[in-house]
Input
Amino acid sequence: MFTPHAGYADAAQMTQRLIQAAQTRGLTVATGAHVKQIQTVSGGARSVTTTMGSFEAPIVIVAAGGWSDKVLASASQTATLQFQRGAVLFYEQPPEMTASHPIFWDVHGEFFLRPHPYHLSAAGWIAPPTPALTLEPFDEFVAPTAATRVAQFMEQCLASKFVAPKRSHTIMYATGADGLPLMGRVHDAAGLFIAAGFGANTFAVAPAVGKTLAQLIVDGNAPTAASFFATPYAKEETL
Output
């Protein structure tokens, strides 16, 4: 798939902007805090205990990605996730590449190539979901076979010659057991919500997920179903 006008936001910068926007609206943001337990009383959320102390919280949204099942377990709730492993390599763009190149995405969802800040290009590979896979241990070493496959995909997309990657690391995405995201109220737990399992779409759909959850919490219902946020791979399986 050739997407000449697709955009991309720097994840680190966008996260900082969202934190700043939340703080200007009166929210307390505690970064780097490890959640130890969600305290419940009579089946409803009451507080969250973290390494930075306890926070009273009659409404709790678990959005911990691949760790969401472990966080929910502290409230005696379960969530079944499956994981996709992959790799991403960062290449310095050749001097002759004066303009940013388009985003390329393999129609089967396995490979991608996109511009990255600082005159770099990010190319990667994502495997199909594997139910038996677990999040731990998470090894950041990229296997030579994976690096070779990514390099071959780059050569098919762009004529420019890239040098060896400057850095690389493995990636991990989580989806629900049926390939669909987990979003909405947690069964038999008043005030407890979950937003996890969005796969490779997580960053792209985050604003829409936040809006949908806000509607669900404030109005009691949301017009957008969780399946709307599923990855293309998951949608193909459910059709």
Helices lie at 11-24, 68-73, 144-157, 202-219, 232-238.
